């Protein structure tokens, strides 16, 4: 392990003697980056005085420690001693050493914990331990990635960058059309790096809509990369039957009754795949043999990105069936962390993430013929509505073909109401093709009152 005693003392000594190093140290270091307890307390004292806009010096820090009864844990002698040590390197080099040591300690702790789980009798399978380890290591990599990218940029440079993007929108404004005319007219497609939730009550068709959008994107001629579907509610065979029903325009029951000879199987598959070239870009993740956690999703998506160069869409059906990487006090806290991971995944892979969601029971308690949706209706966690770039709610009366999609949040864009037809026999949503000329996809009177930007 790296010995950081001298580096810790050098950083703290420079912060005590020169004001410019106070800002640099507090911006790039945390208390946990220091191993020695007395150095942690000294860093905490400097941070506290700085937050109160007070002078930072050995004298003021010593007075703070005495006032708060901490002089026995961080003595006056230690405060003065760190200022007397010779400085061998640049301040940033000392910061780099502390970061490297912290990461090494984190890695050592993770590996020791997992080795203990492997050697100890418990209920965890090896695959589960492996996924947890991969998730923890990826979290470390993400933390290091963001630390290296954090920088302050002047407003002049930001304006130049903005003007360049406006002049070359094809390079920056990457949006993936959903394949539904009126929906794309409102939200202008799913933007890369965005997190979108579609909420609905049971049996309304949220899985069907999600899979339809995935198929539309996969078969779009402009789609370059795979579309990845995580389904915890239906098997991949069930989803394949739905897709076959949609493209063959036959009910699922009619397809299931067909007896296909082995010799004709390849011919039929080839015919089906060629009917809408691009459907082969659709991939399903088998969740029947493993717990589907945020770490598992991140791991699979990263592997797919490395293999194919990118992803065009990640579909997750549905949020409330995700299992936690680590059990917490309540379900709300678990989904809050899951939501954050999915948003980070979307941004890191520069790919839209579309997540189906159940609704809270508050929707059922509302009176009136038409349900009024709120962003907080997404079940179990307020973090979902905060992390989401776009939120939509699907509503349909059981047995009716007309469906309504309420766009209640669209960061940087419009909200509104979109009408779709639902063909029950083929579990397919289609655009409403014959409409009153006065009706438009955007209807201010019908839109939800919330606009969360």
List keywords for this structure.
Rossmann fold; 9-stranded mixed β-sheet; 453 residues; DNAb Helicase, Chain A; alpha/beta; disordered C terminus; two-stranded antiparallel sheet
Total number of helices: 18
Number of strands: 11
Report mean pLDDT, rounded to a whole number. 78
For the record, give the distance between the C-alpha atoms at the N and C termini, rounded to a whole number: 46 Å
Give the CATH architecture of the largest domain: 3-Layer(aba) Sandwich
Q: Any idea how many domains?
A: 3
**How much of the residues is beta strand, in percent?**
5-15%
Strand line-up across the major sheet: 5-4-6-7-3-8-9-10-11
CATH class of the largest domain: Alpha Beta
CATH topology of the largest domain: Rossmann fold
CATH superfamily of the largest domain: P-loop containing nucleotide triphosphate hydrolases
Question: In angstroms, what is the radius of gyration?
Answer: 28 Å
What structural class results from the helix and strand content? alpha/beta
